[in-house]
Amino acid sequence: MGVSKSGSEGSKEDTTKPDTMIEDAGLSPWREAAFVFLVCLAQCLSLAGLAQTIAPLDIIGSSFGVTDEARLSWYSAAFSLTFGAFILPAGRLGDMYGHKTLYIIGFSFYAISSIIAGVAVYSGDVLLSVARALQGISCALFVPNALALVGRRYGDSPKKNMVFAMFGAAAPVGWTFGAVFASIFAQLAWWPWAFFAMALTCAVVIVAALVVIPRDELHPSKISDFDFLGTFTGVAGLLLFNIAWNQAAVVGWSNPLTYALLIVGILLLVAFAIIEVSYSKNP
């Protein structure tokens, strides 16, 4: 009986140790805190970027001499459209090439596109809208991969649920900070400084991520493993569908182009669903 008890206790210890290691993420307390902060910062800065042109919209528009609501709406819509559409392939790219790699690449593009958005004041609002679309793509690269870093690091544990909750709470905090500071820069200084400050923040995040975030455990992947057809139909369908609804709110449903974009977008999304269910090897 004594041997049996000892054996059962030993097996119990063996099964609890891995769970403890997973929950601790294998990091020192300070590095783990910095890791969680960087993960939540991805959500925070993405929503801050979205808000950068919402609160000071009239000031930005007046600097370009633009008062047309249809054109003004694109300063924010371009960001949200690409953000929502390009999240689809970003997670898969992270699985193939590493979530840390995509996190850093995303913030690098975010810094560059933020600088372009700032210097658009010398060019025109078309360049600003293009830069905002690039910012959205950048956020689509690092936000889902930040979440994936948490899932890979913690496994199934209460601590992972806590980090996910903090990640979600970072969204309204980021939006509020983005709107407030963009408005302060626009009213008291110069609205491009909000974008230049974002670029500087991204540079700091990149350096911190290189030091803090652990290396990825990569599995061999080939470019042929990527679902190009599914990505094209999914991203294009989401873009056209959202563009149609965005324009309809401004120009109304009397414009035939609105219906054309909506119908083509729906058809592409149906094609995407069929491809992913029936034909894709790596959906």
Task: Classify the beta-strand content into a percent band.
Answer: under 5%
User: Which residues sit in consecutive blocks of at least 5 with pLDDT less than 50?
Assistant: 1-23
Proportion in helices: over 70%
Structural class per helix/strand content? Answer: mainly alpha
Query: Sheet bearing the most strands, described?
Result: none
Radius of gyration: 22 Å
Order of helices and strands: HHHHHHHHHH
By DSSP (H or I, 4+ residues per run), the number of helices equals 10
Write down the CATH topology of the largest domain. Answer: Growth Hormone, Chain: A
**End-to-end Cα distance:** 53 Å
* Topology, number of strands: 0
Q: Which word captures the global form?
A: globular
What would you give as the CATH superfamily of the largest domain? MFS general substrate transporter like domains
The CATH architecture of the largest domain would be: Up-down Bundle
Oligomer: single chain
CATH class of the largest domain: Mainly Alpha
Supply the number of structural domains.
2
* Mean pLDDT across residues: 86
Overview of this structure, please?
Helix 2 packs across helix 7 and helix 6 (125-154) runs antiparallel to helix 7. The chain is built from ten helices and no strands. Helix content is 83%, strand content 0%. The protein is globular, with a radius of gyration of 22 Å. The chain has helices at 2-24, 29-51, 57-64, 69-97, 99-119, 125-154, 158-188, 192-212, 228-251, 256-279. The N and C termini lie far apart (53 Å). The protein folds into two domains: 28-218, Growth Hormone, Chain: A; 227-283. The chain has 283 residues and is mostly helical. It comes from Peltaster fructicola. Residues 35-283 form the Major facilitator superfamily (MFS) profile domain. It is found in: Membrane. Its main location: membrane. Residues 1-21 are annotated as: Disordered.
